Records
---
Amino acid sequence: MTITEQKEQEVKRKSKLRRRKVAPNRNKKIKPSNRWKKARKAVSRLQRKVSNQRLDWQHKVTSDIASRYEIGVTEELRVRNLTRKAKKGSKRNRQKAGLNKSILDVGMSTLNKMIGYKIEAKGGLLLVLDTKKVKPSQRCPNCGKVHKHWAELSNRHHVCDACGFEIERDQGSALVMYQVAINQQPGDGIALVNVDASSSTSKRRNCKDTGSLKQLHF
C-alpha cells in the first residue's frame, strides 16, 4: 500500500462531506457555510499529513543511502513520460492509473535530488546517466546486448537470447548502471565516456562513514 492509499479513503469521505455543504459562489453571492469551511479544513489537514509522511519517508530512505555509500549512480528520470495515460482502447487503463499513482506518490525526482545533495554533503559523488543512451532496462549486463522487448514493464524477468544470462529487471538495470559508472560494461556495452553523465559535485572532499558502490549486492 502506498503512502497516499493509506489516507485515500478518508480523504474521499471528507471530500464527499464537503460537497454536501453550502459552497461559496461569487456569481450568486453565496457565502460558504461554517460546515463547508470545517470540512475543507479537515480535507486540507489530511492532505498535509500525507505530504509530511511522504517527505519524512523520503528523508529516511535517502539519508540511509547517503550514509552507506560514497558514490551513487542513477538514471535521468522523465516522470512526465512515465505517468502518461494508457492508450485509448487499452485493456489496462486501471493498471496504468494505479502505476501512475504509485510513481507520483513516491516522488522519484525528489528522491534523486535528496540523494544528490546528501551524498555531496559527505564528499561523495552522484552520477546521473542518460537513460536513452545507456538503456539500463533493455541491456544485458552480461554481454551488453540491447533487447527492445525488455522495455515493457510487464517483462520482469529477463533472459538474454545471446548469452543465456538470466536476471530480474530491476537488478539487471542497477547492474548495468554500475558497470557503466566504473567503465566495465562488457561486450557491446557503452562506456561512461560515451554517455552524457552529470554529477552532483565536481569537487571531491574527504569522506567519512561512507562505503563503496561495490558494497551493493545484486
---
Amino acid sequence: MTNSTITVDVVFNLFSFIIETISFFVCLILLSAIIYRIIEIKYKHGQLRIDIPLILTINIICSILIKSTLQIIHITIPTLIKDYQIMTYFQETSFSRFRAYILWSVVGVLYWSYTLLAFFRFTRVIYSTKRWLHRSSLYVYVLIPCQYIFVFISLLPSLVIFNNIDLIPNEAYCTIVFSQFYFALYESSITFSIPFSIVGIFYTFIVRKMRETSAIRQGQELDRRDYIVIRRMGLNMMLLSMMALPFMIIYIKDIIQNHYESILYRVQWLSSSVGSGLFSITLPFITTRLRDILKPNGIAPINNQHMT
C-alpha cells in the first residue's frame, strides 16, 4: 500500500472510532434518562405501564450500545494499535473468529430492531382492530427474543459451515471475507438488505392506506403520526443505503481486479459507525414518548399517554 492509502485508512478508522464513541454516549444518556424517568414516575404515581414504542426504543438503544462496544473492542482498537505500529503481528484465533460472528450478529440485530419498530407502526395503521398485535407482551416475550434468535442462528453458518470469517490480510481483526461473494451476499442480506426491504414494504402499505383516506378525522391522527414516523425511518434507511454506495463501488472494483484491499473493510466499518450515529441521534424524532422523556417536565404517567 502507498503512504496515501495508509493515511486514508487511518483517517477512516479514526472517524469510525469518533462516531462510534459519540453513538455510545448518546445512547447511554438516552437510556439513563429513560431509567431515571421510569423511577421518578414509579415513585410519584405508584403504577407504571411502559408502552410498546418505548420498549422497542430501549431495544434499539441496547443494540447500539452492544454493537458500539463490540466494534470498538474488536475492530477499532486493534486497528489503531496496528496503524500506529504499537503491535504489528496479529494471529487468527477461534475466539477472534467467534467475536467477529457476535459483532456481525449484533449488527443484524440492530437493523432488525429498527424493523420491529416499523412493524409496530405498520400493524397499528393496517391492522388497528387486531388488539393482540398491540400487546406489549407480544413484543417483550416473543418478537424481541425471536429477533435475536433469528439473526444469531441465520449467521451461524458463517462461522461453522461457510467458514468465511477469517483474519483480514493487512488488518488486525477477523471479519466476514468478501472474496466469497455468495456467502457475503447471504450475510449482508440477513443483516441489512432484508430489514431494509421490509421497512420499505411497510412504508408502501401505510402510504396506500393514507391515500385511501379522503377526509381527516380525529381517529386518524394516530395513523398520520405513524405515517410520519415510518417515513422518517425510511429516510434514515435511505441515507444508510447512500452511505453504503462507496463500499459497493470499491467492492465491485475489487471483484473485477480480484484483489481486496484494506480500504474496503475500513469503508464498511465507517458506514456501520455512521449507521449507529444516525440511529442514536434520530431516535427522539421517531419516538414521541422518548422526546417527551427528555423534556424537563416530561414525566406524566405513561399509562395516561397515547402510544406514540
---
Amino acid sequence: MTMSNQVEEAARQVVEDLHSFIERTIALNGGKTTAVKPNHRIKFHWPPHPISYEYHVLASDWTGAASFEAHGEKFEVVVAQTPYGTFGRCEAIWHEDRGDNLELMLKNLQRSAEPLFQRQIKINQTLGQEGRFVGHIRDLSPSELITLLYCEDRDVANEARTEIETHASQRVFTPALIAILQDRKHPYRRSAQWCVLDLFEDLPSICRDEKEQELAVQAMRDLIWDAEDDYARTIYKAGVVLGGHLPHKHGGPVLLECLAAPSKVGRRSAIHGLFHVVEWQPELRTGIVLALREAAQDDPEPQLREFARLMARDIEAGEFDHIPEPVFPEEL
C-alpha cells in the first residue's frame, strides 16, 4: 500500500469512528438531535501557582502525610505544618492548598482541585471511557482528537483543535472535519463546528487538493443554508471564513447564493460576510451592493431587510466598519 493510500485509509477510518461516536451519543441522548447551546469557553490553567511559595515553606517542612478521596480515588498528600497554617501538596495532580488545620487544608485541597477533576472526567466521558483522563491530549489518536472537538468543555475542544492544527500536514483529519460541518445530529455540534471553521480559515494548509477544498466550501455553504440557530456564533463564523478568508474564488459566489437561504441566521451571516468579500475584492462592490439592495426589498425578515439596506450603504461608501448585525427576538 502506497503512502497516499495509507493516508486515505486512515482518513476514512477517522470518519467512520466519528459517525459511530455521533450515533452512540444520540442513543445515550434518547434519540434527541436538537442542538444544545454551549457555554462560553473558559480557559483552563494548570497547575495553579504553588501557594507554599508565597509563604516561603521550606523543603524540610514537608514532613507529614495525609490523603483525601474524590471521585472514587484516593490521593496522597504531603503535609507541612507552619506558623502560617497547614499546607498540603498532592504531587499526583501537581497541586497545593492550605488551611488553618489539617482537616481544613484537605477540604480546601479537594475543593480547589475539582476543576481539574471535572475537566478530566469530561474528557473521558466524551471519549466513552470511565473515570478521569490522566494522559496528555497531544498523545491521543486522530479519531480521539476529532471526538474531543465535541467535548462539553469548550477549552478541551480548543486544545484538541490546536493539536489537529499542529498535525494538519498528516492530511488524515480533513474528511472528518468536513463531516463535522455536515453533522445535524450531535447535541454539541455547534462548538465542534466552530472549531472546524477556525481551522478552515487556512483551508489550503488543511486540504490535500482543490477537490477537498471544494468539499469543505460546500459543507460551509450547507451549514449556512439550513442553520436552525447560531449557537456559539458558528453560522456567523462560517460567513466570516468564506468572506474574510476565502473571498477570491469561493466566498463571493457562495455568500451571494446564501442571500436566498431558507435560514434567517444563514442569510444574516451571508449579508455580513459579503462586507469582507468586498474588503478583499473591491471590484465586486457594485454587484454585491445590487444584491444586498435586492435583499433589502425581498427578504421576508424585516430586521434582515434593514440590515441588508444598511450594509449596502456601508459597502458602497467604502466604510472600514459596518452596521452591527441584528439580534433576533428569540436570541435575546
